[in-house]
């Protein structure tokens, strides 16, 4: 028996582990763990969402394959007509769906690392190649190299992230307009846009431009700002010409009943979610200032719910390991090109910042 050839050598994706696994590994109860490694929202779902989840009416019935009620709510929230919208089991599912729809074996996608790891992973999973045009040292895009790569490799899809993970920088309007001139489908991943400006990202997001463009897809998620990462619910806005193919290519019941209800109830209470997002943005400022005071860290400015830091004069992996083992604090460590000796810290609650800064302070003398 033989599996598909390209999967034989595919390295597995390294996922972030959940509380109960971390808890068992380091022998601490979940409430003694400070989890700042996956850009989750530490406040979790709103009380109204928890209540709706406890009272689900039809968990025994398959969900609506077209997520009609949720898409109607999303139409009001985003200002994009529902016919352009599709929900998915996280933005992750929609990234994979786009690739399955577009890529023949050996086709390529383009991405600009350092960035979210799923683009290159899913490309390889789909027997395609990921052409990478690295960002500059300040994480801005190298437009000349991008134009050249598009011309040479003719990527079918170009995945670009704003705010970018892991640095939190946003693309300006002019840059996005320049990308939209390229002869490829631009997939703009706005997973963290709600943290980038007032009004849950409304003034910065490009989602409203989708209906007027033939080559723009915008992906969003409820994982970060709405605290629903564990329920897996995201959505995208797509050009109309693509919708029939997407509908017939997705799994029929991809969005489960609980996720759908949680997202809809979240959208009924955006005023409360704005308060949480503002709380996290205030905490981001406090955390940034505190990290600047740590002599071996250089934090980068960010417009997201995480802060990337360069670790100077000490081993970043050892720092990450010590924080986990000695203090129960989990952060993300990178050893990729462009990110040697870097860590990424998600913005948590005030007590999470306090615990982290205290531990980082102790470690000055370690
Ligand atoms: C840039 C980016 N896009 C998409 C996702 C995945 O979002 P979801 O949880 O909706 O699958 C993440 C998650 O970390 C991300 O960082």
Short description:
The protein has helices at residues 5-8, 19-26, 47-54, 68-78, 90-102, 118-125, 143-153, 173-180, 243-249, 257-268, 270-292, 316-327, 350-362; strands spanning 34-35, 85-88, 108-111, 129-132, 157-161, 185-189, 216-221, 234-237, 297-299, 306-311, 329-330, 332-334, 342-346.
Overall description:
- It is a single chain.
- 38% of the residues lie in helices and 14% in strands.
- With 366 residues, the protein is α/β, with parallel strands linked by helices.
- The strands form three sheets. Strands 2-8-7-6-5-3-4 form a seven-stranded mixed beta sheet, sandwiched between helices.
- A hairpin with a 6-residue loop joins strand 9 and strand 10.
- The protein is globular, with a radius of gyration of 20 Å.
- It binds pyridoxal-5'-phosphate.
Name of the level-1 CATH class of the largest domain: Alpha Beta
Biggest sheet features = 7 strands, mixed
Ions and ligands: pyridoxal-5'-phosphate
Computed over alpha carbons, the radius of gyration is 20 Å
Overall domain count: 2
Instruction: Provide the structure class.
Output: alpha/beta
Keywords:
366 residues; alpha/beta; Aspartate Aminotransferase, domain 1; Aspartate Aminotransferase, domain 2; seven-stranded mixed sheet; 13 helices; 14% strand; binds pyridoxal-5'-phosphate
How do the strands and helices of this protein lay out in sequence?
Elements: H1 5-8, H2 19-26, E1 34-35, H3 47-54, H4 68-78, E2 85-88, H5 90-102, E3 108-111, H6 118-125, E4 129-132, H7 143-153, E5 157-161, H8 173-180, E6 185-189, E7 216-221, E8 234-237, H9 243-249, H10 257-268, H11 270-292, E9 297-299, E10 306-311, H12 316-327, E11 329-330, E12 332-334, E13 342-346, H13 350-362
Helix pairs in contact: 3-10, 4-10, 5-6
The protein binds pyridoxal-5'-phosphate.
């Amino acid at each position: 028996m033989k599996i598909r050839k390209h999967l034989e050598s595919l390295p597995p994706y390294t996922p972030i582990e959940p509380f109960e696994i971390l808890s068992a590994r380091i022998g601490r109860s979940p409430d003694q763990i400070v989890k700042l490694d996956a850009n989750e929202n530490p406040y979790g779902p709103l009380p109204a969402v928890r209540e709706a989840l406890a009272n689900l009416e039809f968990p025994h019935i398959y969900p609506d394959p077209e997520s009609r009620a949720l898409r109607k709510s999303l139409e009001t929230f985003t200002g994009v007509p529902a016919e352009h919208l599709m929900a998915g089991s996280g933005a992750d599912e929609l990234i994979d769906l786009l690739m399955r729809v577009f890529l023949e074996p050996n086709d390529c996608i383009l991405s600009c690392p350092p960035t979210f790891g799923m683009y290159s992973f899913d490309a390889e999973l789909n027997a395609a190649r990921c052409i990478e045009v690295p960002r500059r040292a300040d994480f801005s895009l190298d437009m000349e190299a991008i134009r050249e790569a598009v011309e040479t490799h003719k990527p079918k899809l170009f995945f670009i992230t704003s705010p970018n993970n892991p640095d939190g920088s946003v693309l300006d309007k002019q840059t996005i307009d320049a990308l939209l001139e390229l002869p490829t489908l631009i997939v703009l991943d706005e997973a963290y846009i709600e943290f980038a400006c007032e009004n849950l990202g409304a003034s910065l997001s490009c989602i409203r431009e989708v209906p007027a463009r033939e080559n723009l897809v915008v992906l969003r998620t409820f994982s970060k700002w709405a605290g629903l990462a564990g329920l897996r619910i995201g959505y995208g806005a797509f050009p109309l010409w693509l919708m029939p193919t997407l509908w017939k290519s997705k799994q029929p019941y991809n969005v489960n009943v609980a996720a759908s209800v949680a997202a809809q109830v979240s959208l009924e209470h955006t005023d409360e979610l704005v308060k949480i997002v503002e709380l996290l943005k205030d905490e981001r400022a406090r955390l940034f200032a505190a990290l600047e005071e740590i002599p071996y860290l250089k934090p980068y400015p960010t417009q997201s719910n995480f802060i990337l830091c360069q670790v100077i004069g000490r081993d970043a992996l050892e720092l990450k390991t010590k924080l986990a083992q000695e203090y129960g604090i989990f952060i993300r460590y990178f050893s990729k090109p462009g990110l040697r000796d870097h860590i990424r810290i998600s913005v948590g609650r005030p007590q999470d910042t306090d615990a982290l800064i205290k531990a980082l302070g102790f470690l000055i003398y370690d």
